[in-house]
Structures are given as C-alpha cells and as structure tokens.
C-alpha cells in the first residue's frame, strides 16, 4: 500500500511514481509505434509480396484485410485479456502482452507471403490490445487522487502519439538509409526494417516492468478474498448497461474515424499533383513527412485533452470540444485538400488528427471512473476491443471497398472521397451518441 499512501499524502511524485509514469508513457508510445507502422508500410509490402503494381485492385482489397482482420483478432483476444487482467492481476498481463507484440513485430519483417504478414500482424495487434487495457487499469489504480490520476493518465497517454512520430521517423530512416543495413530476405526493403524495429522499444519495458508494483487496490482485495470474479454478463446489468452500450458505440466511432479516414492518408498522398511525378523513394519520404503532421496533431490533441481533463468537470462537455471541430474539419480536408494540395493536406491532417486522436485519450481517462475494481479491466476491454477494435476498424474495410465505386479521376482521389464519406458519417453518429454518455457519479474510482 506504500504507493497509494505516499501518493495521497505527498504533493509531489516520489521516485517510484516517476518511474511508473515514465514506463507507462513508454508503453503507450510503443503501442502506437507497433500499430501505426502499417499505414506506412502496407503499400510497398503488398507490392513486393503480391508482385503487382501499386494501382492494382488487389492492393486495395488486401489493405482492407490487413487493417481489419488483425483488429478483429486483437479485439477477441483483447477482450479475454481484459478479463484476465481482472482475474490474474494487472502487472502479469502487461508483461506477457509486451513480449508477444515485440516478438511478433520482429517476425513480421521476415514474412514471405501476404498470409504470413497477416498472421504476424494479428499477433502484434493482440499484444497491443491486451497491453492497453491492462496499462490503463494499472495506472489508474496506482494514483487514487482524482486530479493527479486524471493528469497522469492523460499525459502518459499523450505519448501514444509520440510513438506515431517515432515510427514515422523510423520509416523515413529505413527508406533513406536502408541500403546500408544488412539484407533481409535478399533485399533492403524499408518496410521490412520498419517492422523489425518494433522489437527494439519493447526491450526496456520487458526489463523494468516485472519489478514495478502491482495495483495495490487489486492486490489488497485479492489477498483478503474480497475481489469478486469478473463477468461479461454483468456489464449488461441495469447498473452498467447504458454505460457499456454507449461507450462501446462511441469508441467504435472514434476508431472508425481513424481507420476509415486518417490512416488512409499515406495511400492518398502519392496521388497529389506535387507528388505523383516524384521517384519512388521521394514519394515514400513525402508520405512519411505528411504522416508526421498527423502524428504531431495527435500529440497536440492528447496534451490538450490532458490539460483540460483536470479543468473541465463535465465529461460530455470535454468530449464535445474535440468532436464538434473534428466534424467540420474532416470532410473539408478529405474532399478538398486531399485531392488538390500537399501543403493544405499537411496542415489539414494535423488538425483532424488533433481532434480525432485526442478522443482516444478521453476514453483512457473516462472508463476507469465508471467500472469498479473487479470489473474495470473487463469493462474497458469490452468498449475498447468490441467497440474500437472489432467494430470501429471495420471502417477501413468499408472505405477501401467504397473507393472502388466512388467517383474520381484517380485511385487516390476515389480513396479520399470514400474516406470523407465514412469519416463524416461516424463522426455524426459519435456526436449523437455522446448525449447519452453517463457522467461519472464521483471523481474517485468506484470500489
């Protein structure tokens, strides 16, 4: 109970608490690092593994599959991981999930077919989905003071966008200097080096996290025999039903905006007038540069949400500060900027990323406050994995299929229009659902 007592009585963080916060921030950053490499590498990877030109319809079909199938796998096993987090403990599940996504990311770099790439991406997604739920529950329970908890959870989640910036930089370096690295499968393909780099950031987490404390609230209840067994059925009892349904639907919309629109941008960029005539390496560098604008926008949004989370009491009001501008900006960016101007797209995707990615941090702050200790991981995992991963990411499949029938002079233009349609639709649904979002009954975590 040392962590809880010192946190509640000391105005400053202890050394141990700083270590916990830093490791949590690294964990969120590396989660994003693993997931956000796919939009960067999917086009060149499929061109090599399928042996077809970049404009082939089969590329579009496989992009949807590679976005959606791993997300479904992550959602299914992530749901189980949330249950195990409540049953076995937060720290134990964290360590095993990190090990899984690190090793599978490295193995994906040696994929010899698109099927093997799909398999390893499924394993990576499973690890990340489990890690996120366990990390949020663990971190929230280590800092019971409401304002400090809101700040710690909010600011550490902001590092998730730093992971996106890191993988963008890593891909840029792989594209630029890959010829100087040892050959992988007989070549110097940047997408393979980028996938394999996923093992590097996981090393410090594997070395340090096993020595950090377990959640004192969970551990005390476990030792005294007062910890109730988690149950998926209980999520739909009268007490939690509205919360479960609304949060699941809204997380689905947030992920749908990201997967159905924002993560399609790397395949839209090569169709811009300033980019389409460039050599392949220059095109990929430009893709990386545009992606960095989106990631910096996401980082800005997460930091802004963390700042506002301790200053705005109403959770709906806080969420609307990001939903309303995003609802206006997203269709403008994808209908106009994404088909006409590189500079407009860069700044437009910065703003859309800021409004959309901030909503991911919102749920990390909100969900621990509406479920009790024995149900916290299970409730979080249902919203994040069933709503976000399994339903929300299907928007990527919807967008790529719509792109085949949308009007437009080029495949990237049709993809941009499809992204605008899907992204705007899910933003509207999420905004409408927000008016049914229950406000937490108190600032402290429910026991």
Q: Mind explaining what this structure looks like?
A:
The protein is mainly alpha-helical and 447 residues long. The protein has one domain: MFS general substrate transporter like domains (Growth Hormone, Chain: A), CATH 1.20.1250. The chain is 74% helix and 0% strand. The protein has 18 helices and no strands. It has helices at 2-9, 15-35, 38-50, 57-88, 90-108, 114-142, 146-177, 190-196, 202-208, 216-224, 241-260, 265-268, 280-309, 315-340, 342-366, 376-392, 394-402, 411-433. Helix 4 (57-88) runs antiparallel to helix 16 and helix 17 (394-402) packs across helix 18. The longest helix has 32 residues, at 57-88. The protein is globular. The model is unreliable at 1-9 (pLDDT under 50).
Rounded mean pLDDT score: 87
The biggest beta sheet is recorded as: none
Number of helices: 18
Shape, per Cα inertia axes? globular
Beta percentage is under 5%
The stretches of 5 or more residues where confidence is low (pLDDT under 50) are 1-9
Tally of strands: 0
Name the CATH architecture. Up-down Bundle
Give me the Rg, rounded. 21 Å
Order of helices and strands: HHHHHHHHHHHHHHHHHH
What is the fold named in CATH at topology level?
Answer: Growth Hormone, Chain: A
Q: What is the number of domains?
A: 1
Going by helix content, strand content and strand pairing, the class is mainly alpha
Class in CATH? Answer: Mainly Alpha
CATH superfamily: MFS general substrate transporter like domains
Helix content: over 70%
Task: Give the CA-CA distance, first to last residue.
Answer: 15 Å
């Amino acid at each position: 109970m040392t962590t809880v007592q010192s946190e509640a009585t000391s105005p400053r963080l202890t050394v141990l608490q700083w270590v916990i916060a830093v490791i949590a921030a690294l964990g969120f950053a590396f989660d994003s690092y693993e997931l956000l490499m796919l939009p960067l590498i999917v086009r060149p990877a499929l061109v090599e593994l399928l042996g077809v030109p970049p404009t082939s319809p089969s590329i579009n079909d496989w992009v949807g599959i590679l976005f959606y199938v791993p997300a479904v796998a992550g959602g299914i096993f992530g749901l189980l991981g949330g249950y195990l987090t409540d049953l076995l403990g937060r720290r134990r599940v964290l360590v095993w999930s990190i090990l899984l996504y690190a090793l599978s990311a490295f193995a994906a770099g040696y994929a010899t077919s698109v099927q093997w790439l799909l398999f390893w991406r499924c394993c990576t997604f499973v690890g990340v989905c489990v890690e996120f739920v366990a990390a949020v529950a663990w971190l929230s329970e280590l800092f019971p003071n409401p304002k400090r908890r809101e700040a710690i959870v909010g600011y550490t989640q902001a590092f998730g966008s730093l992971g996106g910036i890191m993988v963008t930089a890593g891909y840029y370096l792989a594209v630029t200097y890959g010829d100087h690295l040892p050959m992988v499968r007989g070549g110097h393909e940047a997408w393979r080096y980028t996938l394999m780099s996923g093992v590097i950031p996981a090393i410090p987490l594997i070395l340090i996290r096993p020595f950090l404390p377990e959640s004192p609230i969970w551990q005390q209840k476990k030792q005294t025999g007062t910890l109730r067994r988690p149950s998926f059925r209980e999520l739909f009892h009268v007490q939690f039903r509205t919360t479960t349904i609304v949060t699941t639907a809204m997380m689905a919309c947030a992920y749908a905006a990201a997967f159905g629109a924002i993560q399609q941008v790397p395949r839209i960029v090569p169709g811009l007038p300033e980019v389409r005539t460039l050599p392949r390496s220059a095109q990929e560098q430009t893709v990386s540069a545009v992606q960095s604008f989106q990631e910096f926008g996401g980082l800005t949004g997460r930091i802004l949400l963390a700042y506002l989370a301790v200053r705005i009491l109403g959770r709906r009001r806080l969420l609307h500060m990001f939903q309303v501008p995003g609802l206006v900006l997203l269709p403008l960016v994808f209908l106009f900027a994404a088909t006409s101007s590189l500079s407009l797209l860069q700044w437009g995707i910065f703003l859309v990323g800021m409004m959309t990615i901030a909503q991911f941090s919102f749920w990390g702050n909100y969900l621990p406050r509406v479920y009790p200790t024995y149900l916290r991981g299970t409730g979080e995992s249902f919203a994040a994995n069933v709503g976000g991963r399994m339903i929300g990411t299907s928007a990527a499949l919807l967008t790529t299929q719509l792109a085949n029938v949308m009007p437009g002079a080029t495949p990237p233009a049709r993809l941009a229009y499809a992204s605008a349609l899907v992204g705007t639709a899910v933003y509207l649904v999420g905004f409408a659902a927000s008016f049914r979002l229950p406000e937490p009954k108190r600032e402290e975590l429910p026991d």
